[in-house]
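Re: [ENG-882] Designed sequences occasionally contain unexpected residues at chain ends

Forwarding the minimal case from QA. Structure tokens:
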């Protein structure tokens, strides 16, 4: 808001004359000038109030508006993994696994997936409620470009797969394998299975997908 300031100065000079009427007339004249100056200041204030200056009316400022849009990614169709039992020296065809079919969509086109075992053993172990342990493996099948690759055995508590190709459809409608482009399977070899005491053996694996 603009502010205005007016200063008025009144001076009374005595010349040393003893003519009282002259002094009186000068005082009257001075009072008249003061009243006129006060009236002039009041009028100026009223004019300022009702007619603001053009510069104040045109005052402006700039505001910058910005928004950041990050890459979008999602993984769907995750179910509990069914464990397959195989002998140590078996020749395993990838279609013999109990695959969990998953769909990864990303606006970036490529992504990485990280797996973390809650049990945290190296190598990976299933654990029963009584504390008994059983070795197991994770296998993965995924797409890189137009090529599908299988990787395993993966048996460390933290697993990272990089440069994987994501779907451009949130439902993986553009993928070749039943609306999926990422597959995982858990596998137990026959020897640790046969040696384990009776019980329910479990692990919890967390999957995280990150755009690349």
């Amino acid at each position: 808001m603009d502010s205005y300031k007016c200063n008025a100065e009144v001076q009374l000079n005595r010349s040393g004359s003893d003519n009282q009427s002259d002094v009186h007339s000068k005082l009257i004249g001075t009072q008249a000038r003061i009243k006129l100056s006060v009236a002039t200041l009041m009028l100026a204030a009223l004019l300022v109030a009702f007619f603001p200056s053009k510069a104040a009316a045109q005052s402006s400022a700039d505001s910058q508006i910005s928004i950041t849009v990050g890459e979008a990614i999602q993984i769907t169709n995750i179910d509990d993994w069914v464990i397959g039992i195989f002998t140590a020296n078996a020749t395993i065809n990838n279609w013999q696994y109990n695959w969990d079919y998953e769909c990864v969509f990303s606006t970036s086109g490529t992504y990485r997936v990280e797996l973390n075992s809650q049990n945290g053993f190296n190598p990976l172990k299933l654990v029963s409620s009584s504390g008994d342990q059983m070795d197991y493996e994770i296998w993965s099948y995924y797409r890189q470009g137009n090529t599908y690759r299988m990787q395993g055995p993966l048996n460390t508590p933290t697993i990272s797969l990089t440069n994987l190709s994501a779907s451009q459809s949130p439902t993986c409608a553009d993928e070749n394998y039943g609306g999926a482009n990422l597959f995982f399977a858990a596998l137990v070899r026959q020897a640790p299975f046969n040696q384990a005491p009776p019980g329910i053996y479990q692990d919890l694996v967390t999957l995280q997908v990150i755009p690349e």
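QA comment: On inspection the terminal residues look reasonable. Confidence is low (pLDDT under 50) at residues 1-34, 36-41. Proposing we downgrade this to a documentation issue.
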